[in-house]
Design a protein that fits this description.
Elements lengths: L10 H34 L3 H47 L4 H17 L9 E6 L3 E11 L6 E11 L3 H15 L1
Antiparallel strand pairs: 1-2, 2-3
Length: about 180
């Protein structure tokens, strides 16, 4: 029978096994040292960065949403101011001879301008009033805030005096005659 020997008695074999064990132990030590160095580097990062980010990011987002909401508000207010003046001018031009025709034309113009508005905000409510002396158009609307409940409301109006060329020319001639 053959006997299997776990560890031969030769010195050469003992050195070979010992060197394998030494190399394995050295590799494990290097691995432990590297992982401890990496852990030390990771632990050197301060935790205050997380706290600062938790405070700064919501604040920055709130400021961004505020600016976007403010942009929508300013845009709508200026757009509807322009619409009010343009509609009042249309009503005044057509209403010079017939106020009913002027009011119909102004309401038609009002509807066209409201339909052409492309911003994602509430559509304003408009009102037209044409008389013999003047045309008045007003708008009321609101822009909802992006971060919660509530809205910024605005009211704009435009008034145009109806000019009667005959009366105006007579007034100019009268002032000219008084001066001379």
């Amino acid at each position: 029978m053959t006997k299997i020997i776990d560890e031969p008695d030769t010195a050469e074999h003992k050195d070979l096994v010992g060197s394998k064990k030494r190399r394995k132990n050295a590799a494990m030590e290097r691995k432990n040292v590297m992982s401890s160095e990496e852990n030390a580097v990771l632990w050197k990062i301060p935790g205050s960065i997380t706290v600062e980010a938790a405070m700064v990011v919501p604040l920055a987002l709130m400021v961004i949403f505020l600016l976007i909401s403010l942009d929508f508000y300013v845009h709508d207010k200026s757009y509807y101011t322009l619409c009010a003046l343009e509609t009042a001018l249309t009503g005044s031009s057509y209403g010079r001879m017939d106020p009913e025709n002027g009011e119909a034309q102004a309401k038609e113009k009002l509807g066209a301008l409201i339909k052409s508005h492309r911003m994602p905000t509430e559509i304003a409510r408009g009102n037209v009033n044409v008389t013999e002396d003047q045309t008045e158009v007003s708008f009321e609307g609101a822009v909802y805030r992006l971060w919660g409940a509530g809205a910024w409301e605005y009211k704009v109006s435009g008034t145009v005096e109806t000019v009667n060329p005959k009366k105006r020319i007579r007034q100019i001639r009268m002032v000219k005659n008084v001066i001379q």
